[in-house]
Write a structure and sequence with these properties.
4 copies of one chain form a homotetramer.
Chain A lengths: L1 E5 L4 H11 L5 E6 L8 H4 L11 E2 L3 H7 L2 E4 L6 H10 L3 E4 L9 H7 L13 E2 L2 H10 L2 E3 L3 H15 L8 E7 L14 H4 L4 E2 L7 H13 L5 E7 L6 E8 L6 H12 L5 E3 L17 E8 L4 E8 L3 H16 L15
Parallel strand pairs in A: 1-2, 1-4, 2-3, 4-5, 5-7, 6-7, 8-10, 12-13
Antiparallel strand pairs in A: 8-11, 9-10, 11-14, 13-14
Helix pairs in contact in A: 1-11, 6-11, 7-9
Chain lengths: 344, 344, 344, 344
């Protein structure tokens, strides 16, 4: 199958190329970049030297449509929507890695991101978290690939919400992310010296991934779920650790909570439960599509602590996008994603 | 004034030597280490080369008592208590950096740390957080220097608790610490490769610094305060960021909460409030005795987020110990602690 | 094919398991560890959770011989030699990752490492650098897998030495290594805080990998080649960068030197030349079996600078061991080693 | 004394403010920044909060001349020269941290940096390495503060060159630098993710600090000294380690070489020799104005290895600038620079 990548020169683009280059069923036929059009991909990413023969081109939607069976869009939010619409008009299936089609509500989108010019596609887009929407993804023409933070938080919280174990108010998601989530653009705040040997929160209770978490968890709950979301920037390249604090309705024990997760995720190929009472580390998922999860009940305060670890560029972005593609195309869901975590 | 340091070969010992070597009113007359007795201090810590002429000796309490006016003990918990008792019997004042005299309740101590053989000193020890116990520290013979995590958490929460703004149940302290808090002993879990490029929680809801936080905050509140404490290990050398989530009694705004902190801390030389609505970074306090603090009210969930940043080896250990010594001795409280944070 | 791994709980053992678990032609049937016997491999290495069902056992050479067709030994030097001898007596082929069979000269070995109790096997062992000894590896019963530093240095220098372009005296290899090369044992010098935000040389002109470089380069040259080898410890997990300075016999240009490498390595699947005049980065080979190489002639001083980058745990250890296994067994040489570098 | 800082919003500017704020004899009266004019210094650098009350202004040379007794210029090369000339015309003494007045030869400057519009000042400027030019600095109106790499390399090599122990051709300086040397401007190549967990050489044999080293060492030698200079980028914030390889004229031993350094540097307050046969680490000088040095003779190849470690922002930039100011003003040379290295 022929694959096109629109916006291939950021970290998620690089990661798509890396994963797809070893995927047995697909071939990357076209990859675009405005900044680096004309360059071979390995001039931009020396890690890909000798791996794939691919030259970046300026975006022509017509060309991409012509040369691809399925298209990944890895553009910044706002820039993606019209490109996606055009690809769909060309009859192609699209996995969009931007935020443009994740929120169902146009007003909500515009409050956080700016004007939406293709609102009619919002209802058509499937939120591409396979652990929840696998059946819908299978038939979708447009998959909105989840944000990195929402992936970690929703996988942590959905089973509890579905089991009606959670008080809807006051859930805290204290997330810690590596720096690659900030992308590959010139910047002062993400300079090595501004980040290394440091530790800070940012966008406290004001990050635009919060409404995405609330939308999906509220849909699972059948009532509005509020998330207090505080992201932190950590001096590592890859990884998100999401430490979630929830107030339990009624009583529960670590064992009972653990059993809920076991039941919910037992057939999921990319969710790994840590042994009961233990917790995950991002180092143990780095370079893989896994989401590791641990849970503990704190009797004294009636709260559950749930922690997930993902590689933000893989399960939090490009790996999940390929997982969605596999589902859409009827390939085995793990195809091309068997890479074992690289530790240390 | 002559100062003795018992247990000078760990990171807190090194930091004591570094700070005291530049203190205009004191002289280090004796420093002990079982592991490195006989070595010059700069053989153990090349950073101290040419800075101070000091040879480590095996511990003889009699010698230390004889040669010192005031004594710092930086031994592991359990090993400290009898040494402290002996120094006090020798008539000396002591700042103890171990956990041995922080908890007032013998049973509580023994549940978390093991047998306590000098319980009669527990009531005599003053908990050395100057922002709360300055007057008591002044007259103390024994100061129990606070733990690194409790310092960050108590400074974040005490003003709210004192103002009766906090619901006593369900306070969450999600703390992130650099690795130096784990000390300087051979270990597999703290090897560079086990920590770098990784991120994990540990001792989830089971860390022994939680009872210390609860003791002090409950004392401020006049009722039992429960803390759900989850520490995380972060690949940096120095720094603790404590992200605290509290449920407010009644209503409050960011401005009101901010005003509480301004009022409470306006004369404190080592507490710096971030501009309202902004939050601290450990990079901005590294190498200094400062505690930076930010606060935000989340209207939607009725919670406050309070974040503090400290250098765990300074305000979280040796700097605070010297601050206590300054208070005990009637020196200006900031003497020897004027070092401006080193950034980047 | 059935594979045994003796000494599976260090970093090279972990990496062998990771690579072999995805190798289509082999199955790991037995893996030993004295420290962790009885544990499942994913208790020791959570990254391997769900990847492979393997329990560590105490070493019984008989059992390993019985259950394996080919054996990897990843023991410390000194401990490996007798185990290797016993495996060979059992009729098995062995790839030894220790230093025990790399040096041909017993006296030289003993000067650097200690007593050698199986000296008769020294002449039988093939030095497992496929780019030089591919034909010999094919037929070998015992392959001595090269050290990490020698791999980077020999691949940099062998083409020049073979082309008789190098003055034999005064070659400098200034190498920089990540910390995983130091292994996974409790240690003070490799604690995170002793390494992070630091930079130092060690074993200056006295590292035991120097004689290994000299042995192999002298063999290529037909005369004694002296190497001044200075390794440095760098705060990264993986990667060795070897910056080599050689004095040229006669004259040469960057283009001529580049052509020598092109000719020498054009059919090598794991050597990638950087575009002429540019240099490699360890980040671009991390997680792969590649060795990237760049060269420049400095007219003014008549010297060549040659730089190689490898992942010390892969091309510098376990990847190269699997490459040797592939050659020994007649598998495609790149089988199981197609992993594309993970960047960032 | 009143001090002005022109260009205070980069890392060297920040470091000047940090050091001078604690200097007992000076007061910073004016600090300029085009990018951040109007901001308080602690808005740009939160680490300086509460430390100093200073607002950045747009550059007006007249104002700076009026309000300062001595002026530091920390502008990019090319931008500095005319500002320096104007300050001097205003009768002020200047310490220039740019490269604009380091090279004595206009043509050489222009080959590496671009047009020089104030060439008549080149002969007047004193190269501000106090260990060599202390007497001249005392009387200078213009001090050209050395580059970070040249500081480490010249301090390593000058004693050998002065003692005529070195063959003039083929000296290698293999330097490794932290990232702060690259400054605080938006950039893609210095993003955290482009640097962390990586290791590479850059500007190989083509870095513009090489002519600066050659100028100064040739002046010491009385003949042309050629330096093959290869800098490497290392994922740390601060520190340069310079590993120098020199061919000895005649014979020498480690002890003899060590004695040369002892004799040359015995009265230097900021040079620390490591115990004979041992080598420095950047971690042991971080945050200080020290330069640590170690030396070893390699009998086999007739070469000396000399290694220096400095903090590139202090002895390699702002600390050395203050040291020069102290000398110019007749203050004790170490005043304001007594800060003990911060480790870990």
């Amino acid at each position: 199958m022929k694959v096109g990548i629109i916006g291939a020169s950021g970290y998620t683009g690089q990661e798509l190329v890396r994963i797809l280059a070893n995927h047995p069923k697909v071939e990357i036929t076209v990859a675009t970049s405005e900044r680096f059009a004309g360059s071979a991909i390995d001039e931009i990413f020396p890690s890909l030297k000798g791996v794939i023969d691919l030259r970046l081109s300026k975006l022509s939607v017509q060309q991409v449509v012509r040369e691809s069976d399925i298209i990944f869009t890895a553009l910044p939010h706002g820039e993606s929507m019209e490109v996606v619409a055009a690809c769909m008009k060309g009859g192609k299936r699209v996995v969009d890695l931007s935020a443009d089609f994740r929120l169902k509500n146009k007003d909500l989108y515009e409050r956080w991101y700016g004007t939406h010019t293709c609102p009619d596609l919002l209802s058509e887009a499937i939120y591409g978290l396979p652990e929840i929407y696998r059946a819908e993804v299978k038939k979708a023409q447009l998959v909105a690939n989840p944000g990195c933070y929402p992936t970690g938080a929703i996988l942590a919280l959905a089973p509890l919400v579905e089991a009606a174990m959670v008080a809807p108010l006051g859930i805290v998601v204290d997330a810690k992310s590596g720096v690659s989530g900030a992308g590959r653009n010139p910047s002062m705040t993400n300079l090595f010296c501004e980040v290394a040997e440091g530790l800070k929160a940012y966008a406290v209770a004001q990050h635009r991934h919060a409404p995405e978490m609330e939308q999906e968890l509220s849909a699972r709950a059948g009532e509005h779920i509020h998330i207090l979301f505080v992201p932190h920037l950590i001096p590592i390249n890859r990884g998100i650790l999401s430490t979630c604090y929830v107030r339990v309705v009624g009583e529960t024990s670590t064992e009972q909570a653990y059993a809920v997760y076991q039941g919910r995720y037992e057939d999921e190929p990319f969710i790994r439960l840590c042994p009961s009472g233990t917790f995950p580390s991002t180092a143990a998922v780095r370079g893989s599509n896994y989401c590791d999860l641990g849970v503990l009940a704190d009797d004294r305060s009636g709260q559950l602590i749930v922690i997930t670890a993902i590689d933000n560029l893989i399960k939090g972005a490009s790996g999940q996008a390929v997982q969605n593609m596999n589902i859409m195309c009827g390939f085995p869901e793990t195809m091309g994603l068997e890479q074992i975590p690289l530790a240390p």
